[in-house]
Amino acid sequence: MSSIPKIVIVGAGYGGILTAQQLQKELKHNEADVTLINRHDYHYITTHLHMPAAGTDTIEHSRIPISQLIDEFKVDLIKGTVKDIIPKEKKIVLEDGSLSYDYLVIGLGGEPETFGIQGMDKFALTIRSINSVRLIREHVEYQLALYKNDGNPGRLNFVVGGAGFSGIEFVAELADRLPQLARAYDIDFNRIQIINVEAAPTALPGFDPELVEYAMDVLKRKGVTFRIGVPIKECLEDGVIVGEDEKIEACTVVWTGGIRGNGLIEKAGFEVMRGRVKIDDFLRAPGHDDIFIIGDSSLMFNPEGRPYPPTAQIAMQQGVLCAKNLAATLRKKELHKFVFSNKGTVASLGKGEAVAVVGNRKIKGWIAAQLKKIVDIRYLFIIGGIPLVLKKGRFF
Predict the structure, then answer these.
(1) Which of 26, 111, 169, 353 is catalytic?
(2) Cα 222 → chain centroid
(3) What is the pTM of this model?
(4) Rounded-to-10 torsion of CA 341, 347, 351, 353
(5) What is the gyration radius of the CA atoms in the chain, in angstroms?
(6) CB of 270 closer than 8 Å to CB of 135
(7) 169 catalytic, yes or no?
(8) pLDDT digits over 154-202, tens only?
(9) Residue-range domains of the chain with CATH
(10) 3-state SS string over 192-224?
(11) Most CB contacts within 10 A, which of 26, 95, 213, 281?
């Protein structure tokens, strides 16, 4: 029987991929068996998904075969859906079998947080995966085709719930795409409404106010209507109820209002807050020195006591440190604490427009849009080098 420790990574998102790649660098031959489990045989770039969802980019730019990102001689890839995580038995249950582990890395992506809004989980679309993106793109075009047949004005109303980064980036792409679709379907674009509804008192909550104002002005010029400080009370098959029981007729509602941790986490018995586990400074689950949780399902607080948002750059940094701490654990050496290094924040506003904060510097317009491309290219370079940059990068 092999005595080599078994490391299992569940999820091939930003954190999972970076953990696997860093383990390839850290571990010596036969120091551990590493297995990566993922539902699909590809890794997708979540921060790109708003573009193919609106139809302004192809899906192929957003997904990469995992086999191109890992060394098959160092990491075993299992394509499978995790049904249960059983910490007491140190076992992962899949749809078609199970496997044991000595050390577990949970990098499962999050799930839409609907905050209990009635009907949101049933009638709204979400931007969370390649499959959900396909559905949104086809749904949007189908509504225009149906309108030409039945004249239902609700088919020309597109409601996006949430004006955080995901919501703003999606309405920006939608505002770029819909004029083209209107021409293709012989529809007057002035009849189309893109309505962004946000319960918070501002769009892009927590972002620099000057840049928020700039972003909203850009999107208003593109035809976006904002309903800020107005909560969605209920989502219906034919629209939403907002504010003081006002109904907005719409056959398309896309929810971007937040995410929570993966449901498998709570099911496994971990104590959670909105599905996320408050992990220790070394990325471990409380009471489980053999389980690391990273990405959307992890909860960490900044020095001011506020939770870090579940962003791609945090997941990436967690993944790298997680691999290093796994190697240190195997070698019985001191673990390192997670210290977030903020590289800046960029929000795309569609073609040629964006807003960004890098350090104390505020950037907007075309320069910020180029910075967004650089950020995307940097990630491709980190996980796949120059060949992946040339294959998947957006340069124009």
Answers:
(1) 169
(2) 25
(3) 0.94
(4) -90
(5) 22
(6) no
(7) yes
(8) 999 999 999 999 999 999 999 999 999 999 999 999 999 999 999 999 9
(9) 6-112+259-342 (3.50.50.100), 120-255 (3.50.50.60)
(10) CEEEEEECCCCCCCCCCHHHHHHHHHHHHHCCE
(11) 26
